[in-house]
Batch of 2 targets.
Target 1
Amino acid sequence: MYEQMVTARYYEERLQEEYLVGKQPAFDISAGPIPGELHLAAGHESSGIGVCMHLRDDDTVTAPHRPHHIAIAKGVDLKKMTAEIFGRKTGLCKGKGGHMHLFDPEVNFACSGIIAQGCPPAVGAAMAAQKRNTDSVAVAFLGEGAIDQGGFLESLNLAAVHDLPVVFVVEDNDWAISMPKDRVTDVKDGSQRAQGFDMPGERIDSDDAVAVYEAAEKAIMRARDGNGPTLLEVQVHRRMGHFMGDAEAYRPEADVERAKMRDSIERLADDLRTAGVGDDELDEIRERAHERVDEAIDWAKEQPEPDPSEAYEDVFKNPPAQATTDGGEE
Ligand SMILES: Cc1ncc(C[n+]2csc(CCOP(=O)(O)OP(=O)(O)O)c2C)c(N)n1
Ligand SMILES: [Mg+2]
């Protein structure tokens, strides 16, 4: 778990550096090696990793717009994922999706920029698993800012009424862009929503990745054993802005500091030290993780850009006439 968490954190730090290349001085979002928006998940590691440690390749995961830690934990190919983020031809989606549209059928992982959008497809995957009599499960991750979305609430209902093998994981980082949680809901504990659908709900209120791991184990085993869905809410922290380039003028400095103080990775490292793991071993793990990330980023940066003539391929099932490369002659 520690290795995965360190990998995810360092990945975000490296992407942060790469993203800023060429974007200054007037912050041009389309310039540089990573074009478009970038939402980094530093501070969310305990949730993605604590949950996905229990999953197999044939289990499905849907993630929101802040997906990298979850994708890494689900086993998405780091090189192809990085190439996708850099908009390269050898990326997971041939460079056409970017960081919010990572799709990897090898390990059944998808994410989307539309919040709560992953819930219905996760329910669909769980229904398919149930109908095929397999013991695979689905997990839908979403932010606390998405828990009033109809798609989420309808998914909870469908999952409960059909006893589907699905787990919903709300990553509560207290913010939805510039909107603090207490301005959109009076319900402090989002897992209470489970009661309205007659399913178990649990909130993990600490920065303890092991507590997440244990709660997720219960929920995923329950799903695998055919006993239906669970809703988990995990308190995480947004260590960075909502997206790269967010000046966070709306956010009190003390809140940023608090987020940085409560670091689940440091906590896990302390727990490991207490359990007798030496600093040498922790350093070794960190070095291995850094090497893997650096290698993936170096590889991605050397990959070719997609050919403009392929822009419409894989985008439309039945391309409209104007969406052909010759300007609509056919
Ligand atoms: C349906 C929909 N409405 C609005 C948006 C714009 N939007 C993008 S991220 C976001 C806030 C998400 O907050 P939260 O779910 O808490 O996730 P976090 O960014 O904190 O990880 C919003 C409103 C969107 N992407 N999709
Ligand atoms: Mg949030």
Note: The chain has a mean pLDDT of 95.
Target 2
Amino acid sequence: MAESTAGGYPPEQRDAIYKVIAERRDVRRGFRPDPVPADVLGRVLAAAHQAPSVGFSQPWDFIVITDRARRERIAALARRRRDEFAADLPRARARAFDQLKIESILDTPVNIVVSCDRTRGGRHTLGRATQPRTADFSSVLAVANLWLAARAEGLGVGWVSFFAERELAAELGLPAHLEVIAYLCVGYVTEFAPEPELQTAGWARRRPVAWAVHAEEFGRRGMPGEEPVDPLADLLAAIAPADADAMTAARERQDRMTKPRGSLGALEDVSARLAGLAGSCPPPLPEPACVAVFAADHGVHAQGVSPWPQEVTAQMVANFLAGGAVVNAFAAQAGAEVTVVDVGVAADLEPVPGLLPRKIGRGTADFTAGPAMTRDQAVAAVVTGAEIARDLVAAGNRCLVTGDMGIANTTASAALICAFTGADPAGATGRGTGIDALTYAKKIEVVCRGLARHQPDPADPLAVLAAFGGFEHAALAGFILGAAALRVPVILDGVIAGAAALAAVALAPDAIAACFAGHRSAEPGHAVTLSHLGLRPLVDLGLRLGEGTGALLALPLVQSAARALRDVATFDSAGVADKL
Ligand SMILES: Cc1cc2nc3c(=O)[nH]c(=O)nc-3n(C[C@H](O)[C@H](O)[C@H](O)COP(=O)(O)O)c2cc1C
């Protein structure tokens, strides 16, 4: 034991190292104007200069800026980019962003630019030939050293990246072969915040370290010395029923609000359920919201159950990403963000912003010939959906909205609904995007054949998902479970989300507490599903589009229900006489 710790620091010095790492903050507020003495700045820069670098290339330079006029010009550059970014945000995000301070260029006495020379050291620099990005990584390590040393000196550092890099480089007179890595605002502060400001402001949360540590292979999460995390078991174990006290408090408050009792109809239930989910009354407002459109293809398409070619799935994904689909229009109206998740499209999709590549397979197999997917694939898709929920919540979203795209997915949904509810295929199968009588009869027959072949047991929800589901159904089930585990509401769209919710609730019955039925679709299987789940749809407009469109229409209703519970005065507080 003694041998393995030889060379380690004595406990108090070691604690100081961990303390400075834990207490380093990105600081944007509370700077004091006092100048930073040259010797202090020198120590901090010397610490930065001791960073490791690829092939010992030391690619960094430090440009120390104090001149006010120069900082004003640089602040104007940052302001322009900030405004551009803000203009691109969904409404609820833009509101949250507006509250954030993202730079302190003029509030700090010193700004330091860390640059990178990717050519320094010549062509034989060890390591850089195979990985050119290592030069940048080395400069980033210099930033980390500087940031930690500054914290120990009582200096706050704020990193600003709202720049067009070449614009800033020109202002600093950087030679063309040098890149700006970091723009840092440095000064003494009144205090260091105990946690990242973006976490306090509710913009994003810190991911638990166990999510980030994998044993041997990506996906086997868990801390050293602990059993590997079983993501599905953990997910299901994290789901608990609604908090009855918070629901009671919400109902009592609804009764005391300055309105006749019960006059908000179904919205009173929505608000009570939101309180039950959050475990507090009033519950947090369900915004910002994000719709995740899970896209995948279906082997059962080969049976001729849809008039649309399978390529339409990939083409519509491109349309979502280009902002041209109905889901984009409705999301823009509701102020929500759109994320598209490829969980199993049968085509290679170009990487573009807004697309999360999470392919489990290139489309499922035809469920009339065998299981649509393996049990392992079903588990992987469920876990993927839950991870997407987790990432979207960690990124600051407080309401999740389901979306889906997959040619032939109403056929898979009908089979899932029959398997979970025992409904008759003739009553649960619909015309999807619109099919003629002959195709409709064929579709019912295909569902019957699938059910006869697999003899599904609803007590084994993963087997049911594997038998019939699309990858988007399984991922949506995980998304719903993820929302339930994080106690964030999830607004369900139509029949595809409904079929997925049946699977989610079969896996964890308490997940229902997180589910809000956005609408009732025109698909007959959806009504069967909602009554089986005991959910009341908020909108009923005969929609049969999918994509998340019906759920997005319900988003303002769910948000209004929460806002009313939070903001409306009570008879006692407003001095309004109650009914005799
Ligand atoms: C590469 C990088 C760029 C950043 N750019 C900005 C920025 O432009 N504006 C800002 O306010 N914070 C910026 N930050 C700071 C992060 O938002 C901050 O580190 C994060 O919220 C975590 O908080 P903490 O550093 O206090 O732990 C940046 C951080 C890094 C590592």
Note: The pocket of flavin mononucleotide is lined by residues 25-26, 28, 102-103, 159-162, 196, 198 (CB under 6 Å).
